[in-house]
Amino acid sequence: MITKVTGILAILFLISSCGSQTASDGNNSSGQESVDANISEVLTDPLEYDGKTIKIEGIISHVCRHGGDKMRVLQEGSDLSIQVMLGDFTGRFDAGSEGNRVVLTGQLVTEVTNLDQLAAHSHDENGNHDCETTREAVEVMKAMGLDANIRTYVTLNHYESQ
């Protein structure tokens, strides 16, 4: 009798856990609570979210065919998308994942891709820029009359497929 009850409970547990896929590395790399945002908000003001853990949702529009280490997530109802670096989740998404709805949490990273235009700004002996943050580099560039090209992406630390 106890074996039947245990078996039934095990089956019920398996059925209930199959409702949605969830994965996490078990920690929040930034140690912060996540901020709910949509992709358009993040892309409009990426420096506002830089270094923060954000939670966004959308549709997987592309998974890298070469290494499977990144994907693009599209905001529903728009043509805006953001790159997601999969890190420890490499291999969990493939071309068959495209079109699936996903809710993901990760740290937003911004990088100025045209820092070479700051040649007149202070550099160390190795030619590195001495600004400590992306925001600082962007402000210096603005002061010099330069437009910063900002690369924005999310490093994934949790996802739910829906």
Account of the 3D structure:
The chain has helices spanning 2-17, 39-44, 46-49, 134-143, and strands spanning 21-24, 35-36, 53-63, 70-74, 81-85, 101-112, 150-161. It has one domain (21-161): Nucleic acid-binding proteins (OB fold (Dihydrolipoamide Acetyltransferase, E2P)). The chain has a 5-stranded mixed beta barrel with strand order 3-4-5-7-6. A hairpin with a 6-residue loop joins strand 3 and strand 4 (70-74). Residues 4-30 have low confidence and may be disordered. It is an alpha+beta fold.
Any descriptors?
OB fold (Dihydrolipoamide Acetyltransferase, E2P); five-stranded mixed β-barrel; alpha+beta; single chain; 162 residues; 4 helices
Which fold name corresponds to the CATH topology?
A: OB fold (Dihydrolipoamide Acetyltransferase, E2P)
Which range best describes the helical content: under 10%, 10-25%, 25-40%, 40-55%, 55-70% or over 70%?
10-25%
Indicate the structural class: alpha+beta
SSE string: HEEHHEEEEHE
Mean pLDDT: 80
Relative strand content:
25-35%
Quickly name the level 1 CATH class: Mainly Beta
Shape: elongated
Poorly predicted segments = 4-30
Instruction: Give the number of helices.
Output: 4
Strand order within the widest beta sheet: 3-4-5-7-6
CATH architecture: Beta Barrel
Provide the gyration radius in Å: 20 Å
* Biggest pleated sheet: 5 strands, mixed, barrel
